[in-house]
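1st attempt posting a full record on here, be nice pls
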Amino acid sequence: AKEIEFSYAEGKVNGNNSIGGLAGENSGTIENAYAVVSVSGNSNIGGLVGCHSGTVKNCYSVGNVSTEYSSYGGLIGYRSGTVISSYYSKNKSGCEDTDKGIPLSNLQMKDEASFEDWDFTEVWGIYNSINGGFPFLQAMFSEYEEEDSDFWYSVKESKKGYAFVNQKMGIFYSASPDCQVEYKVEYIGSDGKSKVSTVPAE
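the predicted structure (as tokens):
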């Protein structure tokens, strides 16, 4: 690969040598990209890149990495290039190498604070019901911007709590004046079944 940016891959890939979830070999730049891919092969096997001699910046991978041979890694299989602020799931990959990407737990991978120097204002988003809770590229959801303004990712995540019957509850939010907001409240009814009500914000 010469240059890959704002890209992602999902699925499974299997091969012999230099196999990666997004690119087999990289001698250029991969930036703001990710792979949710199960990868298997013989040598130079990586969750994002198999054989890396370029630059990988602000990327991550989530997926099993499987090989019976050497030279493999959660993010990169073989590295001779530069890796900047890039991560992989040690739970999903089964790897714990630290010289070719930073291993994080699944919980850490779903926390914005784990990703050093990433742009979560214009480039990345993180939300528990999108992409399995892992970071996603905002450009993937550009078709929703006109309808929902930017409130959907400002909330960050669902809020959960407990209340007594007839207890008054207050919810505070910040949104632009032309952004219409609705809350979905899930509760247990008198029949013991879970119910959902949609409440318009006033």
